[in-house]
Structures are given as structure tokens and as C-alpha cells.
């Protein structure tokens, strides 16, 4: 195993712990990262709650959502969700699927989730909503096969996030620090948008503000600062 891959897998464990600590992931949800030397492969934990994921839980998958070596472990049923986003988006190297309670209302009512503060510019504008019923009717609501995963990836398009009707959200970015940042700020924006709407009519960011601010926040310096902060909050500071 190369040194880069070794470090990346350590960061994947940390990303699981961070997103659990920040209230984005709970007993369910997951985070994945593309193999740095094999773009047609990615890593994700076996079926386990993110707060207790370890290095030994990590499995390698193909972009069809099939484990290369399952090691006798049970994978997440929705591993294919990440696989097909990676397949559709060569620019994406990290993905998250979550059911953050603050975000869930925007998957249930017809109120768009839109950036209301500069830190949430990374949402990229109004977040699209994917409804599995449109193509597949009544299902178990999991994204556990290729057709549904491909449909979701199409709804995500070239953006950073998409809502799953009555289910949750998927987030995609170029790195683990970026996808963690977007996921946390998605939750924060949902909370603030709900609080602000209770007070009056929200003033959302303009298209120009979203573009310029997101470009700045996705730079190396802000992401390194945020990643270090989240690491420390999750108990990994100085490690």
C-alpha cells in the first residue's frame, strides 16, 4: 500500500467520525472516497455506524458497487449510490449520503433549500430534489441498485448536493475535506434557513455571491483550516 493511500484511508476513518460528531451522520449514513491510484475503484466502510468505523472496516469497491474483496464483511446496501456518482463524475473524489434532521424537512415539503449565508455558498444554489417515485414508483426507498443510483447521479448533475425526497441527501466534492465541509454547511444552512423563515422573508445569496464565495471556500487554505477544526472537535487534533 502506498503512503498516499495509507494516509487517505486514515482520513476516511476520520471523516466518518467528524460527520458523526457534527450531527450529519448518526447510526446510518456513510462517506466514501475514490482510490487515488485507481479511478475505477473507491473505498467505503462495511455496514457499520460511522461513529465507530475503523481502518479494518474499510472495503474497496468497483464503480458497479461490487466489493473487490468483501473479507466476509457485509457492505452497506447503498454502496452503489456512491459507486454510480463516481462513475458519472470523474471530478468527484469523495461522497456522503446522510439523513441530517435539519435537512430532512426540505425533502418533505416543497420549500427549496438555498444558500442563506456565505459559508453555505458551497451548496451551489437551490439544491435539486430527486424523487424515486417518478421513475420507480413505491420502493424500499434505499438507493440499492444501479438504475436508482444512476437516476440519482443524473439528478445531482454537475452540482455538489441533491436532496432525496422523504429520505435524505447526497453530497459530492473533489476531496474528503471538501465533502465534509459541504455536508456540515448544508446542515447549518438548513437550520438557519428554518429559523430565519420563522422571523420573516429570507434574503438569499445572489448567483454571483454563490459562485465567487464557493470558489474561495473550496480553496486549499479554507479547507485545511476547516478540516483541522473538525478533526480537533472529533478528538483527532494533533494526531
TrEMBL record:
| UniProt keyword list | Lyase, Metal-binding
Domain of life where this protein originates = Bacteria
Class II aldolase/adducin N-terminal domain spans which residues?
A: 10-194
Q: Which Pfam families match?
A: Aldolase_II
The protein depicted here goes by the name: Class II aldolase/adducin family protein
Q: Top-down, what is the taxonomic lineage of the species of origin?
A: Bacteria, Pseudomonadati, Pseudomonadota, Alphaproteobacteria, Acetobacterales
Amino acid at each position: 500500500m502506498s503512503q498516499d493511500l495509507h494516509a487517505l484511508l486514515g482520513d476516511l476513518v476520520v471523516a466518518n467520525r467528524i460527520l458523526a460528531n457534527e450531527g450529519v451522520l448518526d447510526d446510518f449514513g456513510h462517506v466514501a472516497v475514490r482510490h487515488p491510484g485507481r479511478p475505477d475503484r473507491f473505498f467505503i466502510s462495511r455496514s457499520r455506524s460511522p461513529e465507530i468505523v475503523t481502518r479494518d472496516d474499510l472495503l474497496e469497491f468497483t464503480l458497479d458497487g461490487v466489493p473487490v474483496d468483501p473479507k466476509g464483511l457485509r457492505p452497506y446496501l447503498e454502496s452503489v449510490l456512491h459507486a454510480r456518482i463516481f462513475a458519472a463524475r470523474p471530478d468527484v473524489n469523495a461522497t456522503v449520503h446522510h439523513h441530517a434532521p435539519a435537512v430532512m424537512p426540505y425533502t418533505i415539503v416543497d420549500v427549496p433549500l438555498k444558500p442563506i449565508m456565505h459559508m453555505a455558498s458551497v451548496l451551489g444554489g437551490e439544491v435539486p430534489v430527486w424523487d424515486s417515485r417518478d421513475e420507480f414508483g413505491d420502493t424500499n426507498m434505499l438507493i440499492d441498485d444501479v438504475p436508482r443510483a444512476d437516476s440519482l447521479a443524473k439528478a445531482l448533475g454537475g452540482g455538489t448536493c441533491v436532496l432525496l425526497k422523504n429520505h435524505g441527501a447526497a453530497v459530492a466534492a473533489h476531496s474528503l475535506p471538501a465533502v465534509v465541509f459541504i455536508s456540515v454547511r448544508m446542515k447549518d444552512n438548513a437550520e438557519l434557513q428554518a429559523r430565519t423563515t420563522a422571523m420573516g422573508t429570507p434574503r438569499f445569496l445572489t448567483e454571483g455571491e454563490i459562485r465567487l464565495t464557493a470558489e474561495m471556500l473550496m480553496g486549499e487554505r479554507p479547507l485545511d483550516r476547516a478540516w483541522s477544526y473538525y478533526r480537533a472537535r472529533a478528538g483527532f487534533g494533533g494526531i
